[in-house]
Amino acid sequence: MAVSQISVILENVPGSFSRLIDILDKEDIKIKAVSAASTEEQSTVRLVVNDPERAVTTLKSFHFNFEVTPVIAVEVPLHPGGMNAIVKPLAEGEVNIHYIYTTIERIGKETIVIIGCEPMDKAISILKEHWINFVGEEIYAL
Q: pTM of the full predicted structure?
């Protein structure tokens, strides 16, 4: 149920994010979800893309500093407390959420969130028990 996330470390200077996006665009690698956070010296850009394997090859060829990690992609239920339907069971199950962000595009009406957490296997099991819909390989086809 996990999908691949690519975390790219960039210099925190004007144009570094644009350069990354230009390179991916030229290779027809589509960004499905993105999150960026920075410190004074560097930025971490987290990406879910349509073709993670090709993105990795491209990033290597341009000498980017990056890592690939598994994350969970799930639909947020469309009702009041929908987000809590996801995060509360994880908290009760002692799953640590490191970060959460949304996709750029949506499947149907539901918002898709990307969750980086640990332990991941436990998180997946808990969310399955609570009937949360996972978005697996289909996220790459959005």
A: 0.90
